[in-house]
Amino acid sequence: MITASALGSFALIVGLLTLTPGLDTALILRTAALGRRTRAWGVVLGIQTGTLVWGVLSSIGITAVLTASHLAYAALRWAGAAYLVWMGSRILISTVRRRTGADPGQGNPEHEPDADDSFSSGWRQGALTNLLNPKVGAFYMAVLPQFIPAEAAHLPAGTLLACVHILLGSLWSGVLIACARAFRAGLQRPSARRILDRISGTVIAGFGVRLALGD
């Protein structure tokens, strides 16, 4: 059984991690700022699905294979890096196409990299972003065992801890979405939209490059 003290300590660690701006923050803010609330929540729950998967895999020791095998870790790292660079590049390219389109003030919907406002498309994006990042698995493999007592059943205990992370992540994501929607009118102006896409595209692609160059 996990003690209240251990649960509180884990919540503090993942809470600070959740509040740290990163790839998840960039994805959620951009999607919500464009007025795609359904897709934004899809991204959120996709990310949290990935968190749950990593938590379960770490609880039963499968991520130990990932951290022990350089080949497996490198393969997942390169796949994740390629996906992020591809995603960021699409966003950046769309700003160029939109600016050179027939009607720059309105943009060209067919060139939008994520024009689909469906929950499922957001969920896929969020889940892939999380699951293709081996650093999330390495984090869980390093941290989770420290909070699971030796006598406790690892799968239920690890799942409980992952759910704490999911709860905190979902609450913070709700705050991010609310803030982005409060400013969405201004951010949807063509000039502001180009700036937003250039920043978010660069940040997302930059995370991909960083992941590729990481150890």
Kindly list the characteristics that best describe this protein.
215 residues, mainly alpha
SSE pattern: HHHHHHHHHH
Helix run count: 10
Main beta-sheet annotation: none
Task: Please compute the radius of gyration using only Cα atoms.
Answer: 19 Å
- Uncertain spans: 102-111
Mean pLDDT: 85
Structural class: mainly alpha
Compute the separation of the termini in Å: 35 Å
- The proportion of residues forming helix, as a percent range, comes to over 70%
Write the layout of secondary structure elements.
Elements: H1 4-19, H2 23-33, H3 37-59, H4 63-68, H5 70-99, H6 119-131, H7 134-143, H8 154-182, H9 184-187, H10 190-213
Q: How would you concisely characterize the structure shown here?
A:
This protein has 215 residues and is an all-alpha fold. The protein has helices at residues 4-19, 23-33, 37-59, 63-68, 70-99, 119-131, 134-143, 154-182, 184-187, 190-213.
